Amino acid sequence: DQAVLAHRGEGLSFSRQTPAVLAAWFDVPTLRSMSTSQLDACGAILSGQAPLFSRTLRCKSSQDGCLRPKFYDDPFETWQNNIESYLLEEAELAKKQAASLMRHVWVNYEQFAWGRDELKPISGLGDDSWGGLGMTLVDSLDTLWLMGMHQEFDRAVDWVSDNLNFDVDLNVNFFETSIRQLGGLLAAYGLSKRRSLLLK
Known about the structure:
- This protein is mainly alpha-helical.
- The protein is built from ten helices and four strands; from the N terminus they run ααααββαββααααα.
């Protein structure tokens, strides 16, 4: 590919690479899936620089703020490996951040709105705006399981077994109740095989 060849070896500039240059190294679907920060980091790597805050890619030497790997003689393999290492590092960090945020939200839901349809973020109070069916709790069952929060999952399943009751005269949103209640219970049963979920 002429565009790739043009940016290898001596032809690869140490100034920040443009989206056009990135397009020579990645296919369009891959580029579209990247966030702005990922594109910026890949541009930095292709420029011989380390992305900000990366623990995987460290500076080997510095000249005018440009971080140049010692093995720059084989740029295609070097950049490919560096980008892969960076993206794996970022994916692991994102996974940890998502789990941390979920734990934060769930701890607050348990403390301030347990069994209620939702936790109001400003007042910090629980509210039954969806008919008092524990909408957030049921909707979150599969997420708790997938994130490995099994103790929290167990407590939520106990609440479902003991408290969730559909035998009420209630006007509900059919779509929301179907995807969040029925969908939540079926997904949680599919993952955990807890029969009490299927019985509901």
